[in-house]
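Chain A, query sequence.
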Amino acid sequence: MADLRFSDFTAKEKRRIAAKTARMAMPRANLTRLRREVEAIEQQAERRKNGK
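Chain A, predicted structure.
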């Protein structure tokens, strides 16, 4: 996840990341699971950017 920019994400990915980040602020949020889901979205965007 070296050099991903916010513009590398699709509109849907941006919305998903924003929603998951907002859920992280909730008191009973499972931070580990949400962080892992955000990382999966980041990896998907990186694969698309690098053409793999």
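Residues 1 and 15 are 19 Å apart (CA to CA). Helices lie at 11-24, 31-50.
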